[in-house]
Design a protein that fits this description.
This protein has 386 residues and is mainly alpha-helical. It folds into two domains: 127 residues, Serine Threonine Protein Phosphatase 5, Tetratricopeptide repeat, CATH 1.25.40; 174 residues, no CATH class. It contains 19 helices and no strands. Helix 3 packs parallel to helix 5, helix 7 packs parallel to helix 9 and helix 14 crosses helix 16. The longest helix has 25 residues. The chain starts with 9 loop residues before the first helix and ends in a 7-residue tail after the last helix.
């Protein structure tokens, strides 16, 4: 069974109670009346026997650029980031509860809609954190598809969301055996790459890492990891002698927002680079090239923020186990999986999101003065400015 964890961190509980206590009666009454109307309409439709095509995913959405996020919306989205950076998988139900309340208040709030997509993707991606996995876990895939689709409808200028939307299509297609949807997802992924290579070569290629190592899709995904390095470091990356020492000074002087957000660590993903090399090393190991995989794993140690990374021991284990992991990663169905982190590739592990996004105490100290709202405006995080 899925864990129910509608529990708030003590630091945000008081604030949420203060904002929601006075609205509880209105919210419940409004929701009750709305549901009564919906049920009444459904009864009428059934009585008159009409054949009605019902579309529940990705209806036309209109971005409300005149209405700023409410106090509740701002607080609930902060609650998402607090739990996501802590890696509180057990609190996913709680995060969804409050983001859904924000969505109910304003279903056109871009930040809320996008975050709902991320949380549903997180829930299914790291399901090996669950002691018992319910078959209903697949609903998270459908809902990730819904919310990323809505986010893209709200703002089709955002290639980042398009990349995640493509991933959600391919994941849902795999579950439902929908070849047409899978094809759509793949070509949406290619479109997102053409719009933002540094970000989406990885985003789309990461998902393809779950496929058979001899498939052309897997090989394409691995090639896209190499191309990420070409685009991030502004030259053809040396594949024979991989080293990033000469590129590290670029982080401080980088003024291209696309490269800065995709190619370096940030508050959003404090270990984006280390996680990238962990995954790329895994993909090389699965392909059979474990020696090259070790070379790529070792690049993570050159990253300035490496010492703050919680998963250093995972990387070290990968390096010492690379040769034996060729079989584990390429034939997981024939391997005994005792450890949801070390016995599987990153994409299939219990830290498939957290490898990049979880904050250590050192990261929290580094970003203690970080202003998310100011960052959103300066970095154009949702691509609202052209």
């Amino acid at each position: 069974m899925l864990k129910s964890s509608i529990i708030l961190n003590s630091s945000t509980l008081t604030s949420i109670q203060a904002l929601t206590f006075q609205e509880n009666h209105y919210f419940e009454k409004s929701f009750y009346n709305t549901m009564k109307k919906i049920i009444s309409l459904l009864a009428i439709y059934l009585l008159i026997g009409c054949s009605i095509a019902v579309k529940t995913i990705n209806q036309k959405k209109v971005l409300d650029t005149t209405k700023e996020s409410s106090a509740l919306g701002t607080l609930y989205n902060k609650y998402f980031w607090d739990n996501f950076h802590e890696g509180n998988y057990d609190n996913i139900d709680s995060v969804l509860y409050y983001l859904s309340a924000s969505y109910y208040e304003n279903p056109n709030d871009l930040e809320t809609v996008a975050h709902l997509g991320f949380v549903h993707m997180w829930a299914i991606s790291e399901m090996s954190n669950l002691k018992t996995v319910s078959p209903t876990i697949i609903d998270h895939s459908t809902l990730a598809l819904k919310y990323f689709g809505e986010a893209y409808k709200l703002n089709p200028n955002d290639p980042r969301v398009l990349g995640f939307f493509a991933d959600a299509k391919m994941m849902t297609a795999s579950i439902s055996d929908d070849k047409k949807l899978s094809t759509q997802g793949y070509f949406d992924g290619k479109k997102s790459i053409s719009q933002w290579k540094q970000f989406n070569y990885f985003t789309v290629g990461y998902v393809l890492g779950q496929l058979h190592e001899e498939s052309w899709q897997y090989k394409k995904g691995l090639e896209w990891q190499w191309k990420t390095l070409d685009k991030c470091y502004c030259e053809k990356f040396d594949r024979e002698n991989p080293d990033i020492e000469k590129y590290l000074p670029m982080e401080k002087t980088e003024d291209n927002l696309k490269r800065k957000r995709a190619c370096w660590n940030s508050w959003i993903a404090p270990h984006n680079v280390e996680g990238f090399y962990l995954n790329m090393g895994d993909m090389l190991v699965k392909s059979g090239d474990w020696k090259k995989g070790v070379q790529i794993y070792n690049l993570a140690k050159q990253v300035p923020q490496y010492e703050n990374w919680i998963y250093k021991s995972v990387l070290e284990k990968r390096i010492t186990s690379a040769e034996e992991n060729v079989k584990k990663f390429s034939q997981p169905e024939k391997s005994e999986i005792n450890d949801p982190i070390n016995d599987v590739m990153l994409i299939n592990s219990s830290i498939s999101c957290m490898a990049c996004h979880k904050m250590s105490s050192g990261d929290k100290e580094m970003y203690k003065d970080f202003d998310w709202n100011n960052y959103k405006d300066i970095s154009n995080i949702y691509w609202l400015k052209k």
